[in-house]
Amino acid sequence: xxxxxxxxxxxxxxxxxxxxxxxxxxxxxxxxxxxxxxxxxxxxxxxxxxxxxxxxxxxxxxxxxxxxxxxxxxxxxxxxxxxxxxxxxxxxxxxxxxxxxxxxxxxxxxxxxxxxxxxxxxxxxxxxxxxxxxxxxxxxxxxxxxxxxxxxxxxxxxxxxxxxxxxxxxxxxxxxxxxxxx
Amino acid sequence: xxxxxxxxxxxxxxxxxxxxxxxxxxxxxxxxxxxxxxxxxxxxxxxxxxxxxxxxxxxxxxxxxxxxxxxxxxxxxxxxxxxxxxxxxxxxxxxxxxxxxxxxxxxxxxxxxxxxxxxxxxxxxxxxxxxxxxxxxxxxxxxxxxxxxxxxxxxxxxxxxxxxxxxxxxxxxxxxxxxxxxxxxxxxxxxxxxxxxxxxxxxxxxxxxxxxxxxxxxxxxxxxxxxxxxxxxxxxxxxxxxxxxxxxxxxxxxxxxxxxxxxxxxxxxxxxx
Lengths: 182, 273
Description:
Chain A is mostly helical. Chain A folds into 2 domains: 9-99, RNA polymerase sigma factor, region 2, helix turn helix motif (Rna Polymerase Sigma Factor, Chain: A); 106-181, Winged helix-like DNA-binding domain superfamily/Winged helix DNA-binding domain (Arc Repressor Mutant, subunit A). Chain A is 70% helix and 0% strand. In chain A, helix 2 crosses helix 3 (47-64), helix 2 (21-42) crosses helix 4 (75-91) and helix 3 (47-64) packs across helix 4. Chain B has an 8-stranded antiparallel beta sheet. In chain B, helix 3 (22-34) packs across helix 4 (36-55). The longest helix of chain B is centred in the middle third of the chain and has 68 residues, at 95-162. Chain B is rod-shaped and about 170 Å long. Mean pLDDT of chain B is 81; it is low at 76-83 and 85-98. At the A-B interface, helix 2, helix 3, helix 4, helix 7 and helix 10 of A face helix 2, helix 3, helix 4 and helix 5 of B.
């Protein structure tokens, strides 16, 4: 990293809000890898677009740091959600769709995802690795909700299961995830 | 509401991971302001998530940081964040690096052109210089040769003139050609005869001047000459004797005996008969 200064989260947020370039460098060096990993778990097949998203994410972090509210969560949580949202936006963008040879319409996503989850087990990285511990019916829901960005309603419709069941299963899956992360 | 059940419902994970609905988020945030233990539980999950994500970190391509710092550096001091942050596409289309690299390219290209121009000019100049040097050498050789010849002639003349054996005969004009004049340098020792034309009218192409030596009243042919240039020293035929010299106008090539009525000039030597 080469930067002698280290920051507590409190100091880091303060320095970032003061537009401190050194603090931003520290932020990048410490978090870019983790955020790049989550981006790659969503944009699985295009490293170039994943890099573009990482760029956009850090520029947005720099520009929107004033809107970060510490009472609502940790800095990393805030950044993780920016990265996830940006990745899902990219997933749905024309440039990404054009880069895909076989476009999958939302109706077919379930099949596609189901195939992917069985085919790509070996390649699974990051949080997806944790998902392997889950029961398949739970895993697919988290996959669709977290990594594909579908709302619970969309998933319920897509999979023809009641909205309540979707919610319960996702909650149960997340609780299992929490146990794993403890 | 039982807080413990709420904590165990999965709402914390759902909220942190961005999967909660708007109403669920609002409720959760509201409850967090009242229940520190809810905040503590949330924080615990967040820390676990962060720790896990950090372990799973993948190094991004190094150029990403450079590009980001470039954008940050350009806009960093602005305190008001733009409501619509530019997309990556804007960054890539950003004009300033392109312009500076364009300028660099132009300068580089101009330098190459300039260098080529100077090389050509140098080549031309050195080629010209070489040509001039060669020409100069040729002229110097030519000059040296000419100078040597001239020096020899001057030396000869000096010898002729300064030699005590040389008799100088001043030829004066006759009634036919009162203005004609020439000098004869006659070396009695070597018998060489030199003639210097001082002023002799130019003749038609079919006529030439002829020099005669008068020996005991008889003319002796000493050769013909053209009076094209004055003050040119001409070597004539030798003679051992001469009481006088005479110049006549004869047909081209000379005559066996002088046409005396056309005698142009006459000079007597001191030689006794």
